[in-house]
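Problem: given the chain below (158 residues), write out its structure.
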Amino acid sequence: MQAEYINPFIRSLRNTFQTMLACEAHRGQLSVGLGAPTDGVSGVIGLSGKARGTVVLNMSPQVALKAASVMLAEDVTEVNADVLDAVGELTNIIAGNAKAQLEQYDLRVSLPNVVTGNDHRLHLPSDVTPLCVPFDCPWGPISLVVGLAVVQEPVHTG
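Solution.
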């Protein structure tokens, strides 16, 4: 995966957190791979089109609770269906905004899935090299994993 593919997702995450949640997200050092098993709540979205892959937004339970509280305009104190829906919606918004910046790939975005629990492992397609970007915000840690590979079109001869 080329680093320029991830920049629209980084911009989208920062913009989404700033505009929707009034929360500054500060980017950490980009790394290759999924990283360690994740805790908390992960929103997962598939991408297809002239490129294919996966976007994962992972956040600690504290960040998920605070984000849901802001989105719902009420104090949410436990990870419940509303929190899972909020994380799924944030993942959808981030992927959708990034998709608009990657028009050349004619991307389609799947419905979000949300995974919770300690030490959950995510697996991306074997031909996709994911890039992981950690973020820190006043509420706690966030990570964004994007694995995107350009689909090679068949060569027609004759």
